[in-house]
Design goal:
Blueprint lengths: L83 E2 L13 E4 L5 E8 L9 E4 L23 E2 L13 H6 L5 E3 L7 E2 L28 E2 L1 H4 L37 H9 L8 H5 L8 E3 L2 E3 L5 E8 L4 E8 L2 E9 L9 E2 L1
Parallel strand pairs: 1-2, 5-6
Antiparallel strand pairs: 2-3, 3-4, 3-7, 4-14, 6-8, 9-10, 11-12, 12-13
C-alpha cells in the first residue's frame, strides 16, 4: 500500500501524516461507507501510511459527542522485490521489469518478469528469464510437488549407466530421473544476480568455455514433469498433470500446443510470431543456446536451444520451444528421453 494523498469524497479529507493539528484541514467524518483507493501510487518503496480523522469544532459543525463505528479497510497488491522467494511470486505481483528471485529450495537465483498476454485466454504470466538449475532435494516448507526428490546426475555418466538421453534408455529405465550439467551451467545463489548473456553458449558439443553464460541444467521430460508415470513412458500419448513439475511451488512448465500453447503465445507477443528469426526472444532475454543431451553426449551448445513444455505430443514425444539463429518453432516435438532446458511460469 502507498501513501494516500487523494481519493476521499469531498465531504472529508485525508490528513497528511506530517500535519495532524491544522484545523483547516479537518472535516466531518462520512456518514456512509465510502470506498477509497489509489491504484497508481508513484512510490513503490513506501509501504506504510497513516490515516488521521478529526472533527472540526468550527461554527459550521456543532460540538458534542459523535458515536458509531468507523471501519477503514484497504487492499494490497505488493510487487515482488529483488531477492523475494519464487514460491511467493504470482503473475499478480510479478514485476514487469526483470527482477532477481530466489528458489527457496536451494537458494539459486533467477531473473523473472511478467509478460502480458502470454497465458491462456490472453492472461498474464510471470516468466523465468534464466534456465532452471535445480538438482533435487531442498526444503518442502512451500509444498513443492517434487521437493526432496532424488535426481541422478548424468553429467559424467559411464557407458551402460541407467540414465536417460534417448527414448531407448528411457524405455529401459522408466523410473530413473536424470539431469545433465553442461559446461557453464553456472547457477547463481544468494544475492548474486544471474548472468544476462544470451549467446556464445559453451561451444558446439560442449567444448568451449564461456564463463559469462548461464546455461542451467538439462532434464529429461520425465524429470521435468516430476517423475509422473505418464511422462516417464513412451508407449502412450498420456497427458501428465500440467501443474506438477520440477519448478518451484506455484510455478509450472508452459504449455506447448501449436496454436494455443503458451510458448506460441509468447512467440506471438514478443517475437511477432516469427518462425524465421528469434530476435524478439533474444532481445527480451527469453532464449539461450543451451543445446541438449542425447545418446551419451552433449550437442549444439551455442547453436540451438530447447525448452520443455508440459504438453505431450505423441507416445514418445513432448512439445517444446525450439530455436536456432534462423528458425523458431514454439510447438516443436522432441523425444521425451532427451536432456532439454526448462523455463518455468507462474500463472
Amino acid at each position: 500500500m502507498q501513501r494516500i494523498a487523494t481519493g476521499f469524497q469531498p465531504s472529508y479529507q485525508v490528513l497528511d501524516s506530517t500535519n495532524q493539528t491544522n484545523s483547516a484541514l479537518y472535516a466531518a467524518l462520512p456518514t456512509t461507507p465510502t470506498v477509497f483507493s489509489q491504484t497508481n501510487a508513484p512510490n513503490t518503496t513506501d509501504d506504510i501510511y497513516n490515516i488521521f480523522f478529526a472533527i472540526s469544532t468550527g461554527p459550521s459543525l456543532p460540538t458534542g459527542d459523535y458515536s458509531g463505528i468507523i471501519t477503514v479497510s484497504g487492499s494490497v497488491n505488493l510487487i515482488a522485490q529483488p531477492g523475494d522467494q519464487m514460491q511467493t511470486i504470482t503473475s499478480a505481483n510479478c514485476p514487469t521489469t526483470r527482477t532477481r528471485a530466489v528458489d527457496a529450495r536451494d537458494g539459486n537465483t533467477y531473473w523473472v518478469r511478467k509478460i502480458t498476454g502470454t497465458g491462456a485466454g490472453g492472461t498474464d504470466l510471470c516468466w523465468m528469464e534464466t534456465n532452471l538449475a535445480y538438482a533435487g532435494g531442498g526444503s518442502n516448507s512451500y509444498g513443492d510437488a517434487v521437493s526432496g526428490m532424488t535426481l541422478g546426475t548424468g553429467a559424467n555418466i559411464a557407458s551402460g549407466q541407467a540414465c536417460y538421453g534417448n527414448n531407448a534408455t528411457m524405455a529401459a529405465n522408466p523410473t530413473t530421473m536424470c539431469y545433465w550439467i553442461p559446461l557453464n551451467a553456472n547457477p547463481t545463489s544468494g544475492s548474486t544476480d544471474p548472468s544476462t548473456a544470451t549467446n556464445g553458449g559453451a561451444g558446439i558439443n560442449n567444448t568451449t568455455v564461456n564463463s559469462t553464460i548461464q546455461l542451467g541444467y538439462l532434464y529429461s521430460w520425465c524429470t521435468a514433469m516430476a517423475g509422473q508415470p505418464a511422462a516417464c513412458q513412451i508407449t502412450a500419448a498420456t497427458q501428465p498433470d500440467p501443474d506438477v513439475s520440477i519448478c518451484p511451488a506455484g510455478w509450472r512448465l508452459p504449455t506447448g500446443q501449436a496454436t494455443t500453447g503458451e510458448f506460441t503465445l509468447l512467440n506471438n507477443t514478443i517475437n511477432g510470431g516469427s518462425t524465421t528469426s528469434p530476435t524478439g526472444l533474444l532481445t527480451q532475454g527469453l532464449y539461450l543456446y543451451a543445446g541438449y543431451f542425447g545418446s551419451g553426449s552433449f550437442s549444439s551448445q551455442g547453436s540451438d536451444g530447447n525448452y520443455w513444455s508440459s504438453t505431450v505430443s505423441s507416445a514418445s514425444n513432448a512439445f517444446r520451444l525450439y530455436f536456432v539463429s534462423s528458425s523458431v518453432n514454439p510447438a516443436n516435438s522432441g523425444s521425451k528421453g532427451l536432456g532439454t532446458s526448462v523455463r518455468c511460469v507462474a500463472p
